[in-house]
């Protein structure tokens, strides 16, 4: 698989709510918080879900306290479960399949997330051997999306995630090491490893953070305005309310739409091509 094909796979992992049976509005458990004004048990339709599976307050979600809905993104898992796994049979028309559909949905979400990471890694300049290994993992994950509901429910995703994470780490380190070598020579930059760091609320405005490893880091409410975040590894990082207005994340690695949706930014924020500018960001 070449880089262009891998990039296209990553680009195509977007939600199409018109082909989904409102699974995120039904399958997931919601707890009243700053992100939601209500409690809603899993497998229970949200009070705002209409008969055609659209949301009756979609244009007013934030104003009505449903901030979490504007952050959420399933990477296209919803329409696959609805149209492929269950062949277009909705939980409303076939109540007996509902429980199983709601259980399969979060599994498909995880598979799509892993597909996104694998495809993205293959779109970078990495060794042929590493690309081949990632390609094999990507094919395995794509095949999982075609399984029936019972087969999906029996999967042990930890096995797939663990082996993929090893390859993603190698890919990230390889890319970052090349950039770090140049930065050390030019700017005497010494510390690039902040994996799982607690940088909640940290002041990072205008900082050059290129090639930093923020894997699993807590960056909640961090001030990263106008920061240079190119080639940064953001896999698993918590970016809730982090201010990335004007920041350059154009070549940041392993970002998801949900991470960006949870952050604060503006039209000057530079994002990877597969990430959409959140509609709730300021102009």
TrEMBL record:
It comes from the Bacteria. Pfam families: Pentapeptide. InterPro entries: 5peptide_repeat. SUPFAM superfamilies: Pentapeptide repeat-like. Gene3D superfamilies: E3 ubiquitin-protein ligase SopA. This is Pentapeptide repeat-containing protein. It comes from Oceanobacillus piezotolerans. The lineage of its organism: Bacteria, Bacillati, Bacillota, Bacilli, Bacillales.
């Amino acid at each position: 698989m070449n880089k262009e094909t891998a990039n296209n796979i990553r680009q195509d992992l977007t939600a199409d709510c018109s082909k989904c049976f409102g699974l995120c509005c039904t399958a997931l458990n919601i707890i009243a918080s700053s992100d939601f004004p209500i409690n809603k048990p899993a497998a229970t339709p949200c009070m705002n879900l209409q008969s055609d599976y659209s949301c009756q307050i979609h244009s007013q979600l934030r104003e009505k306290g449903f901030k979490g809905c504007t952050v959420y993104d399933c990477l296209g898992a919803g329409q696959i479960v609805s149209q492929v796994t269950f062949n277009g049979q909705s939980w409303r028309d076939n109540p007996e399949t509902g429980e199983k559909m709601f259980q399969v949905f979060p599994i498909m979400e995880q598979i799509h997330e892993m597909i996104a990471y694998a495809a993205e890694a293959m779109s970078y300049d990495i060794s042929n051997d590493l690309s081949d290994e990632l390609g094999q993992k990507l094919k395995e994950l794509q095949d999982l999306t075609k399984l029936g509901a019972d087969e999906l429910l029996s999967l042990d995703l930890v096995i797939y995630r663990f082996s993929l994470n090893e390859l993603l780490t190698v890919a990230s380190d390889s890319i970052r090491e090349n950039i770090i070598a140049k930065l050390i020579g030019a700017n005497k930059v010494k510390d690039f490893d902040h994996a799982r760091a607690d940088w909640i609320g940290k002041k990072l405005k205008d900082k050059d953070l290129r090639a930093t490893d923020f894997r699993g880091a807590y960056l909640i409410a961090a001030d990263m305005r106008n920061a240079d975040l190119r080639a940064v590894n953001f896999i698993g990082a918590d970016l809730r309310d982090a201010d990335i207005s004007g920041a350059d994340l154009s070549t940041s690695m392993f970002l998801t739409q949900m991470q960006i949706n949870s952050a604060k930014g503006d039209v000057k924020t530079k994002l990877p091509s597969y990430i959409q500018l959140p509609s709730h960001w300021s102009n």
